Amino acid sequence: MRYTFFVPGLPGTAGSKSGFGFKRPDGSVGVNMVDSCKRKDAWRAAVQAFALQAGVKPIGGPVTLRLTFSMPRPKQHHIGSDRAKPIRANAPKAHTGKPDVTKMVRAVEDALKGIAWHDDSQVVYQENTKHYADEPGATVQIEGVA
Predict the structure, then answer these.
(1) Residues 99, 69: contact at Cβ < 8 Å?
(2) What sign for the dihedral angle of Cα 114, 1, 121, 60?
(3) What is the 8-class DSSP label of residue 58?
């Protein structure tokens, strides 16, 4: 079983949290943990929708996951800082800035729980990359391991 699909949009992340302290009525101190990524829920919903549209069904055994994240180029990579103009010859090809590729992977893994696998612990092999591209998004390839 093999599935491949593309999810358009700026990839979201999972795993980073921010803590906010507060005082309880009894005087003790508590901490509220909040996800740092504002796009997480919208990205998760998009991944799920495109997976279902591609006909993805849960795989029962071990799974290989390949993710290619396409990130938008900043304006300064283009001649004259105009995205309609060609890319500068010295513009980098690899996306080495934030977000972290492992946090983007975690968001996709979490989104596909119950859709592509029963639990993301079934993912036994991964190949993940990120690069600059004209259309931001993620290409997802899921394959059952024989």
Answers:
(1) no
(2) positive
(3) -
Task: Provide the 8-state DSSP code for 30.
Answer: E
36 vs 16: CA distance, rounded Å: 6
> Cα separation of 146 and 111, whole Å?
24
Q: State the pTM of this model.
A: 0.81
Compute the distance between CA of residue 139 and CA of residue 5 in angstroms, rounded to an integer. Answer: 6
Residue 4 near residue 140, CB atoms below 8 Å:
yes
* Domains in the chain with CATH codes: 2-144 (3.30.1330.70)
Q: What are the pLDDT digits (tens) for 93-116? A: 889 999 999 999 999 999 999 999
Nearest-Å Rg of the Cα atoms of the chain is 18
Q: Which residues lie closer than 8 Å to 115 by C-beta, 6 or more apart?
A: 48, 51, 52, 56, 58
| Amino acid type, 137 | G
Residue with tokens 């508590």: 30
**pLDDT (tens digit, 9 = 90+) per residue, 61-85?**
999 999 999 999 888 888 876 777 8
Preceding omega of 62 cis (within 30 degrees of 0): no
Q: Compute φ and ψ for 37, nearest 5 degrees.
A: -90, 115
